[in-house]
Design goal:
With 103 residues, the chain is mainly α. Helix content is 52%, strand content 4%. The protein has a two-stranded antiparallel ribbon with strand order 1-2. Helix 1 (27-40) packs across helix 3 and helix 2 (44-55) packs across helix 3. The protein starts with a strand and ends in a 15-residue tail after the last helix.
Length: 103
């Protein structure tokens, strides 16, 4: 809600359905926090400091943990599909050494 100083008109907007709380971090911010933690192995506390120092966003580590859990639940069905396909596949390539082997 905002009252403009010159005309004194009140402007009130509605929030999207996805916003459930007064403070809401967008999906890009949460994805950035999760990305930093998972790819750079940054701890929750350091992840919060990173967001504050580089983006001036104050976020406690509990929000990052909650977002990770939610994302894990959202990907559970996809993970099970991948596991099923790996189990039933006649050939599975799992070598991460990047070494070429003559076949």
């Amino acid at each position: 809600m905002k009252i403009f100083p010159y005309c004194r008109i009140l402007n009130k907007a509605t929030f999207p359905e996805s916003m459930k709380h007064p403070i809401h971090y967008g999906t890009n911010i949460l994805a950035s926090a999760i990305y930093c933690e998972n790819t750079s192995f940054i701890l929750h506390k350091r992840d919060s400091k990173f967001l504050y120092h580089f983006m001036e966003i104050k976020m406690c580590s509990a929000n990052i943990i909650r977002a990770k859990r939610k994302n894990f639940q959202n990907l559970k069905e996809f993970e099970n599909l991948i596991k099923e396909n790996l189990i039933t596949s006649p050939i599975t390539h799992c070598d991460e050494t990047r070494m070429k082997i003559k076949t």
